[in-house]
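Our platform keeps sequence and structure together, in a single record for each protein. Such a record has a labelled line for the sequence and another for the backbone structure tokens. Nothing more is needed to write down the fold, since each code stands for a local backbone conformation. For reference, a complete record is included directly beneath this paragraph:
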Amino acid sequence: MPPEGLPEFAVSGRSNVGKSSFINSCTNSTALARVSRSPGRTQLLNAFTWKLRGPNEGAFEARCVDLPGYGFAKVSRNVRESFAEMVEDYLLRRNSLAVALLLVDCRREFDERDRALVEFLAVRPGLEPVQVLLVGTKADKLGAAERGLWTERTADMAGIARRDVFLTSTHAQIGISGPRTVLERLAETLRPT
């Protein structure tokens, strides 16, 4: 990893949730993060330096860290376990980590692994807790009424504020302002004082 210094945000979630597509959507790129049909292709911590700009103030640099997914991945058990070790070490020891974007596929329930990650980030011995922004991906797979219900239900299940839950679909351009809104919230949270 690059040396600490810049404020950091992590992009996390299950394998095949759409982390790479989300990163590419946020940066108006098609190839910054590698997109694959098979789960588990991200096997390292990938760090990108971004310029963030809030609605009212100038730009500043922050670091986006793309984490390997958890859960199902088409890799051996030993490789999956090494993902877990590497990610846990980063989340527990990285002082500059301030925000985690937890991506959840809207078609799946917010489950115990997702909840465990939120709780894990809230208590880091000797370090500040990490704020979690929850991003529902693949929102085009839900009807309009289901989207509102999903947002409320998921915020309750995660134990986070409704304003910190966003819906997006990079495929169908539904909620495409979602990534922009997420980035504006990141800028508010990470902006150096």
